[in-house]
Amino acid sequence: MNSLSGIRYGQQIMAAAAANGLDPQFLAAVAAQETGGPESDSGSNIVGDGGHGHGLFQLDDRWHAIARTPAAMDPATNAQYAASMLSGLLHRYGGNMH
Question: Which of 7, 18, 25, 83 has its CA 20 to 30 A from that of 35?
Fold first, then answer.
C-alpha cells in the first residue's frame, strides 16, 4: 500500500482506499482537488462551495444526504463515503478514471 505520510488525514484516506480497493494516492489527489487544489486549502476538512460542500471530499448537500449531517465533517466518514462512491463509479465505467 502506498504511504501518505505528511498528507493531512492520510490515515483516514488510506483506510477508506483499502476498504474500497482504491489506490490511496488517487483518493488523496481527489481530496486535494476538491478542497482547493495545489497551494490552497488542499486536503482540508472544510465547508466550501458557498456552504454546500462538506469535508475532505466536498460532499454536496444538494445531492448527498450524508452531507446534511454532522457525519460529513468527520474525516474518516467523509473519506469512506467518497471512496465508496468513487469505487462504484469506477466499477460502472470499467475502471475509466476520466
Answer: 18
